[in-house]
Amino acid sequence: MKQHELFPASPEEVPEDHLRAKGHATIAGVDEAGRGPLAGPVVAAAVILPPHRSFEGLTDSKQLRPARREALYHEILEYAIDTGIGIASPEEIDRLNILQASLLAMRRAVEQLTQIPDMLLIDGLYTIPDVSYPQQALVKGDLRSPSIAAASILAKVHRDRLMQQLHEMYPVYGWNRNKGYPTHAHYEALRRFGPTPHHRRSFRLNIRE
Fold this sequence. Notes:
By secondary structure, this protein is of the alpha/beta class. It has 8 helices and 5 strands; from the N terminus they run H-E-E-H-E-H-H-E-E-H-H-H-H. It has a 5-stranded mixed sheet. Strand 1 and strand 2 (42-48) form a beta hairpin. Helix 2 (66-79) packs across helix 6 (146-169) and helix 3 (90-96) crosses helix 4.
């Protein structure tokens, strides 16, 4: 696992333009959603966008309203050259730790691509272990790279939908609202009902004995 930032220069620089000028034609952005919750999987996405199509309002998924995120989700799926989704379970998070599980989910997302990328742009500080493609990490990549921003949206919407499904099985935890994140209501439900198989036991669940 390497720690590396490819573009320490101006935040206004578009990494895809920089890479295409160097001859990279097929660039996949990779990002994850769900590192901070107490429950549910971490979900990653890999996205190869068409080079000459813009997506209005494309940015970090956390900065978008749910309705806009959903609209961009469908637009990305319609026009992207290729997409992949990868998931790491709560059990894998507990066994590996959240960073390693996030990188595992990212690797699984890349493995779902049917197109062969000649460069991966990874949001954050770290590249993905055990991936044969050239790759670079990009700090705040979801704000600087359209491909990473698209991946963040796919990962976020996919994970939110999974948490909605889990909410229907375990409604007392409010996962339809908090998506597994540590809210007061979530902690109160944990104290009253205990953890489910979908809770991350390695996280601080604050359950009173």
